[in-house]
UniProtKB/TrEMBL annotation:
The record marks G190, T191 as: Cleavage. Heterotetramer of two alpha and two beta chains. The keyword Cytoplasm applies. Its EC number is 2.3.1.35, 2.3.1.1. CDD domains: OAT. The record marks T115, G116 as: Involved in the stabilization of negative charge on the oxyanion by the formation of the oxyanion hole. It comes from Anaerostipes hadrus. Keywords: Acyltransferase, Amino-acid biosynthesis, Arginine biosynthesis, Autocatalytic cleavage, Cytoplasm, Multifunctional enzyme, Transferase. One of its GO terms (biological process) is ornithine biosynthetic process. This is Arginine biosynthesis bifunctional protein ArgJ.
Amino acid sequence: MKIINAGVTAPKGFKCAGLRAGVKPGKTNKDMAMIVSEVPAKIAGTFTKNIVKAAPVLWGKKIVEEQEAVRAVVINTGIANACTGAQGYENVVTEAKEVAKLLDIKPEEVVVGSTGVIGQQLPMDVIKEGIKRLVPELKADRQSEEDASWAILTTDTKPKEAAVEVEIDGKTVTIAGMCKGSGMIHPNMGTMLGFITTDAAIDKALLLELQRELIEDTFNMVSVDGDTSTNDTVFVFANGMAENKEITEKDADYEAFREGLLYVNQSLAKQIAGDGEGCTRLFEVHVAGADSKENAKILSKSVVTSSLTKAAIYGKDANWGRILCALGYAGVDFDPVKVDISLKSADGVIEIVKDGIATDYSEDEATKVLSADAVTADIDVHNGVFEATAWGCDLTHDYVTINADYRS
């Protein structure tokens, strides 16, 4: 596998564009994007588990269930088109029809992504004009990738992209993606949109099964603030233009593709965690020694979502009691006197708990370790052989500031 500096048009046959349409007056950011495949691309999709689902999610689920392949996705930021009733759904259908008309394809070959404020109707005159402007701008170059990756953001401070190349059947297959997500992020798909493109030839059912499996260990292991959104969506588009022999079973070619897709999912998930609203550092929690994979996940999520632990990470305070406490209320049985906890970062490693009690560690050294941009808590509960990793961030004053006036 080769990691490359590229975006969603790195795989053969994809073009994209991003621009400012003016979805929310008074702003200056790019707010609409589009990705198009030259040929039909098999589609896999994973969506929010929130009972309250946005209109584009309902449309996307329908398309994934009923269609083998699609050609395009159009995305807007600023307004989520959630809790907007029949009119909101009709607006999604109108978007699909507008894109289809301009690209000379069927509306059922178009999916939609929206993110932003809940409860507002889309300004369809603005959206339609944005679609008309996007189509002639579609290109396969780095600038277009950057424009598109910026155009899907809300409170994010930076775009999020990942891309790799893998060899399958003697062909170079590329997998690339972009996503947005900064707040209302919690396991079960946080308020995030993800778009992954690949030129691999792969059976749709196998692609859907694989992506949903990988989501559980990547995007569903991310938490910023404990809120699960109405709009979460990750699409994977596979157009087969690498011309590899179609992957139809779980053989060596499948494993090579799986490795690349896992990397892209995981990289994007970590970038979301590291750009949590108001955060100053990425917080990674790795739990080992659990008696099952599910319990390892539960324990790691419990620590990464603990508000007190997140605040301690912000304060560069090695408050190990908060970590042990979060493990204890997770609902998983383990022996507290066997727990070991270490903190590590680019600035060093320090063991702070051994056999359930504090070591004679240096608070100054711990503060140094916790001052890096990315910090990991390594936890071993010595109760089995299973492990899991969750990603989050620290909790800062700025998180409240951002969300206190989000609608304005």
